[in-house]
Amino acid sequence: MEDEVSVDVLLKENRVFAPPKELIKNSNVKNWMNKHNIKTYDELLLKAKDIEWFWGEVSKDVVEWFKPYDKVLDWNLPWAKWFIGAKYNIVHDALDKHVENWRKNKIAYIFVGEPGDTRKLSFRDLYVEVNKLANALKGLGVRKGDKVGIYLPMIPELPISMLACAKIGAIHSVVFSGFSSKAFRERVNDAEAKVVITCDGFYRRGKIIHLKKQMDEALEWAPSVKSLIIYRRTGHEVQWNEARDHWWHEITAYQPNHCKTEVLDANDPLYLLYTSGTTGKPKGIIHAHGGYAVGTALTLKWVFDIKASDIWWCAADIGWVTGHSYIVYAPLILGATSIIYEGSPDYPKPDRWWSIIEKYGVTVFYTSPTAIRMHMRYGEGWAKRHDLNSIRLLGTVGEPINPEAWMWYYNNIGSERCQIMDTWWQTETGTFVIAPLPLISLKPGSVTKPLPGFEADVYNTKGEKVSQEGGDLIISKPWPAMLRGLYKNPKKYMNYYWNKYPNVYLAGDIARKDKDGYFWIQGRADDVLKVSGHRIGNSEVESALVSHKLVVEAVVIGKPHEVKGESIVAYVVLKEDVEASDNLRIELIEHVVKEIGKIVRPEELWFVKDVPKTRSGKIMRRVIRAVALNKSTGDISTLRNPEAVEEIRKAK
Ligand code: PRX
360: which strand partners? Predict the structure, then answer.
């Protein structure tokens, strides 16, 4: 039996998990290959090297242009235009086309609230809600190209808001509802949003999170924001600003059920999504309508093999790219039925997720290694109480999955019969880039190979392709859902992603390839942390710490953590004459939470007199990390203050 095989043995034997024949035979990708007379996976990869042919051909299967494109790709590094000349709007494929056919009464979203309330929205229901809100936004003066900020939890009004913006050609900028009001303010001001959408509150671990209150704080200084729309979710009392605030149910009440879908250029921007980089300031990633629609829909259709009969559950938050691409746009374009769950995975009991899978007959389930490890800790007994036989495919994303967690997921959630699609991608890529298809054998912990139509590789520092020894993960050809730049910062876009090696995109990850050409992602190469799969810049947390009046300097590193993947450890230098104390430690930790959000709460915070620096004054995070993790520091003779290394060593 599978679970009697130890993971060590499994890895030593280099055991692979071949896809069941039935899965291959009935898969969407195999069906497409048959139509194109392509016999094998390798032949498919080879054919798809002609990216213009490939993406042009597959686009026919997933999108309907208002006006067809003249040319598939215009590539002027680092700027790409896809499906040039096409007139398009992603909302046509996500909604409008479905209400014209049998799908109009199919369920698009099954919503499960944390307290147990549920709602089912058909494609037509969703269509009506989106159109009403789109008309209301127009009434508030929102026009094509305007930015709309969205600060909503996992309720159907979040996709409704995004689609309403896209419908009228406005650009949405969703901020994860777990971010603090200050983090929201920073993003909304950068985006210069005209209107913002939120709710009174939502449920998390049995408590109400007062989102409107956080929004009021955020908008204390947000000069561009003229109107705020508030959806009533919890019904608790909220403060009201007559000049600015509108209830969702009032402003949409008498709006018509139809609103014209704006005819856009396929390369017009669809959304901004802020993500962390190596500086203290988050970057606004831009995605565009046409290429993003083709890329997200095709990858979901092929990797997770989504069919009309599937119940798809991507258990991410829509506030991150995973939710944008694979809860909102791709499943809607494919006409799939998806689950949206508001609350915590283990509330009120650790089997909450498994009970939802059983109740709704979820067939394809996608989550993160952190969540899997958390459930592993609770023990498989919780999953065993439920009939999970409806599941036919599983997936993971966000961080490397350790083979132990992989096996646990395979045995206990997939009942030893479901393939696990480990998908590597980023906010910037918009879609999966390296991931299995139902045609390929799996190795636990490997993301397998770049998908057809994508070219990725591993480079050493000289820019040469390498395999086993590992190096920088790069993407060497443009792809349709790629980012179209950094908002307000074209120079940084070039320097950050396209400058290290000629002609290739630098992912910022370290990877290696094994003898079979399988990719193994090892983690970030730069100063970006992955805490519970959330991407956080070290310097963002450091900036938050030094914004406290008693702090002079701060350094943040990531430490391996059994469940979260990484946890945050901070070293803080206080102002002269300020006394270190446990109370101050707590105050500083809470200060970081207030500045950014709970997801960045430092696990450890140490007071030190100094931190190691180079002669030019640059903080040596590498050295600090090595000392903290009891690893060799290498040469520290170039440090200006080698004695500071001792300070870090003592702080344990
Ligand atoms: O380090 C990689 C890791 O997540 C980073 C991207 O983070 P973000 O933009 O927040 O998007 C996360 C969801 C797409 C990558 O640079 N990462 C993502 N997927 C995997 C992964 N690391 C290992 N295996 C994965 N499957």
Answer: none
pLDDT at 4: 47
Nearest alpha carbon to residue 652 among 562, 587, 557, 578: 557
Report CA Rg, the chain.
Answer: 24
Q: What is the pTM of this model?
A: 0.95
Instruction: Give residue 632 CA to ligand 1 midpoint distance, Å.
Output: 27
Sorted by where each begins, the domain ranges of the chain are 7-92+289-481+509-522, 523-651
On whether the CB atoms of residues 345 and 352 are closer than 8 A, the answer is yes
pLDDT tens across 473-529, in order? 999 999 999 999 999 999 999 999 999 999 999 999 999 999 999 999 999 998 899
How confident is residue 619, by pLDDT bands cut at 50, 70 and 90? confident
Nearest Cα neighbor of 285 from 588, 25, 535 is: 535
Pairing of strands 419-423, 393-397: parallel
Topology (CATH) of 7-92+289-481+509-522: Rossmann fold (3.40.50)
Task: Tell me the per-residue pLDDT of 460-483, one tens digit each, with 9 for 90 and over.
Answer: 999 999 988 899 999 999 999 999
397 pairs with which residues across the strands?
Answer: 423
360 and 315 Cβ atoms separated by less than 8 Å? no
DSSP 603: S
How much distance in Å is there from the Cα of 510 to the middle of ligand 1? 11
CB 375 within 8 A of CB 345: yes
Q: Whose CA is nearest to atom 5 of ligand 1?
A: 426
Q: Ligand 1 mean position to 582 CA, how many Å? A: 35
Determine if residue 508 is left, alpha or beta; phi over 0 gives left, psi from -120 to 50 gives alpha, anything else beta: left
- pLDDT reading at 2 higher than 50: no
> Under DSSP, is residue 92 helix (H, G, I), strand (E, B) or coil?
helix
Which two tokens mark 569? 């450890």
**Per-residue H/E/C for 173-231:** EECCCCECHHHHHHHHHHHCCCEEEEECCEEECCEEECHHHHHHHHHHHCCCCCEEEEE
Ligand 1 center to residue 397 CA distance, Å? 6
Cβ-contact 290, 423 below 8 angstroms: no
Nearest-angstrom CA–CA distance, 476 and 493: 16
**Runs of H (alpha helix) within 17-93:** 21-26, 28-35, 41-47, 51-62, 90-91
CATH superfamily assigned to domain 523-651: ANL, C-terminal domain (3.30.300.30)
Q: Which of 530, 538, 566, 599 to mutate to test the pocket of ligand 1 (most atoms within 8 A of CB)?
A: 530
